[in-house]
Amino acid sequence: MSITPKGIFVPLITPFNDDETIDFQSYKKVIDFQVESGVHGLLVGGTTGEYHVMSLDERKSLIKAGCEYAAGRVPIMAGVGYSTAEETIELANYAAECGAKWGLVLPPYYHKTSEEGIREFFKEVAAKSNVGIVIYNYPGATSVTISPETIYELSQEENIVSVKESADFGHLCEVVALTKDVENFTVFTGEEHFILPTFSVGGQGAFGILVNLLPKELVEMYELAVEKSDINAARDLNRKLSGIYGLMEAEGNPYPGPVKAGMDLIGMKGGKVRKPLTQPTDEIKMKLKEELIKLGYKVKLMDKEVTSGV
């Protein structure tokens, strides 16, 4: 039986060179930064990693490199979603060969299927994959909502170990309530605003674009809320971070442009997003600079270092 993930997982960005090839040297530095900051796991090749603008060979190279660079220090989850079970299984088993423990799987999309079709899809993927399967419920991107009841049914499958909830918070609460007594199954949020509320209702983990930029702070929130049950301290930290949460989505649906810009500001290469995504605006960069300074970070903008003095 596959182990279940929990804690703070970073959906890794993918740094690119100027010619839009993958910058593997910077990718390794990002992974080292995350591991040294205490994250509990890495998600390689997910939405934040811009998998949707990559070829299959590039996706495989990213998964392989992520596993090699992590070198067993933290467990790896790989984004393996495709619209067919056959392709999903192929990439999931490649990820397993590389050393990944889990595969993050979207439901079939574009031509919408029924709830039965969704269930059969996940069951087939789970039965034929050599990694634990994590359901990815992301209706904002797929226009497919996986019902709480379907997620509960799928949680009974031996090789389906978790769900990443990027739907509304009410949906997440229903899933937590339905699966609370299911052994070896965990519920994650994929939204920054929902991280602390998720822990408060019994969720066991969180992803967030912002973890790329502020891993130590979000690991601390998990430790305060889950391990120490110090909800007041967790609330205080959440308030400090709340100003930067919304900047991750300030220019539309969540995408890695703003967090990459934030990483550039603190000296950790985020770099550009790949076309057809567009680069974050100067306004967003200025707002990120202001929020980072409030948090005590030294930031660089236009090749000049700016500090809050703390």
UniProtKB/TrEMBL annotation:
It is found in: Cytoplasm. Gene3D superfamilies: Aldolase class I. GO terms for biological process: diaminopimelate biosynthetic process; lysine biosynthetic process via diaminopimelate. Pfam families: DHDPS (PF00701). Pathway: Amino-acid biosynthesis; L-lysine biosynthesis via DAP pathway; (S)-tetrahydrodipicolinate from L-aspartate: step 3/4. One of its GO terms (molecular function) is 4-hydroxy-tetrahydrodipicolinate synthase activity. Keywords: Amino-acid biosynthesis, Cytoplasm, Diaminopimelate biosynthesis, Lyase, Lysine biosynthesis, Schiff base. It catalyses: L-aspartate 4-semialdehyde + pyruvate = (2S,4S)-4-hydroxy-2,3,4,5-tetrahydrodipicolinate + H2O + H(+). The keyword Lyase applies. The keyword Lipid biosynthesis does not apply. Pyruvate binds at residue 48. SUPFAM superfamilies: Aldolase. The active site is at 136 (proton donor/acceptor), 164 (schiff-base intermediate with substrate). Its EC number is 4.3.3.7. Catalyzes the condensation of (S)-aspartate-beta-semialdehyde [(S)-ASA] and pyruvate to 4-hydroxy-tetrahydrodipicolinate (HTPA). PANTHER family: 4-HYDROXY-2-OXOGLUTARATE ALDOLASE, MITOCHONDRIAL, DIHYDRODIPICOLINATE SYNTHASE. Belongs to the DapA family. Homotetramer; dimer of dimers. This is 4-hydroxy-tetrahydrodipicolinate synthase. It comes from Priestia filamentosa. The lineage of its organism: Bacteria, Bacillati, Bacillota, Bacilli, Bacillales.
